[in-house]
Write a structure and sequence with these properties.
Strand order of the largest sheet: 2-3-8-5-6-7
CATH class: Mainly Beta
Helix content: 10-25%
Radius of gyration: 17 Å
CATH superfamily: Olfactory marker
Number of helices: 2
Oligomer: single chain
Order of helices and strands: EEHEEEEEHEE
């Protein structure tokens, strides 16, 4: 007899900005600019409209269920996963560490506020499944969130729902 999943069995994890890592990556960009040096081959520098966020996984055996995102106003937000557990104070972020696909959602300037956000559903599904796979081998995962076309971090709420593996 199948037991219906109770709400308590769901894990809804919110993307939380990691201000310390974001600042450290901004300092790297600033340091390179001041010294006139170039980035290392393959190094991925933080762009002015990006922040570093993280997900902390309470358990490792998860299945992706659903994305929740809301954005006041208009704009485009992209979420890029980072495949390796890195720390900018010890190692630089390399482009090869960025996951495909990326998650993208947006609202056009002429769309009414009550219109649901648009997204690339197949990519968002695959991205959520990829995050669940990586959760099996780590307790925290980092992401680059990019805010474009008028989107701002203060206007974003983004979380992801997982169900435990049975």
């Amino acid at each position: 007899m199948d037991k219906e999943k109770s709400p308590s069995e769901k894990f809804v994890l919110e993307f939380k900005e990691d201000a310390a890592l974001t600042e450290m990556m901004r300092l790297r960009v600033s340091s390179l600019q001041k010294s006139g040096q170039k980035r290392q081959d393959g190094e991925r520098l933080l762009l002015p409209y990006e922040v570093v966020s993280r997900l902390d996984f309470p358990v490792q055996e998860l299945n992706f269920s659903h994305w929740y995102f809301s954005l006041s106003g208009h704009g485009r937000v992209t979420i890029t996963g980072i495949s390796q557990h890195w720390t900018p104070d010890l190692t630089h972020l390399m482009t090869r560490q960025l996951l495909e696909p990326i998650g993208t959602f947006w609202r056009n300037a002429d769309d009414p506020e009550d219109l649901p956000l648009k997204c690339l559903e197949a990519d968002m599904q695959e991205f959520g499944e990829r995050i669940a796979e990586l959760a099996k081998v780590r307790k925290v995962m980092y992401f680059l969130l990019a805010f474009k076309e008028g989107a701002e971090a203060a206007n974003l709420s983004c979380s992801i729902e997982f169900l435990p593996e049975k």
